[in-house]
Amino acid sequence: MITLYGISNCDTMRKAGKWLDSQDIEWVLHDYRKQGLDLDLAETLVSVFGIEDLINKRGTTWRKLVPELQQKLTDPALAPQLIMSYPALIKRPIAFTGSRDWLIGYDQLLTLAS
Description:
With 114 residues, this protein is of the alpha+beta class. It has seven helices and four strands; from the N terminus they run βαβαααααββα. Helix 1 links the parallel strand 1 (2-6) and strand 2 (27-31). The two termini are 16 Å apart.
């Protein structure tokens, strides 16, 4: 079973869920806004993907952040706390596949079909 991490009202998340269903891949959603984002998961995401790949700098949440917070997000030691406060900063979707570890973004999710 795949765990899909993100925000349920995100269009890309809906698209990812529909694609997984069309491939008969079992999955469960972990919505950061409803189920939270704890420090352990935040640190894991930063460690696995790195800041540059993890943070969505094209989104509204990033653009609304004050420059001081944007700068702090470049520090791997500070980033986990900040993404816990602003989970919409995380690129979506993120999938944990168990056997194939972590994937980020819709395009990487499509590799599950191969």
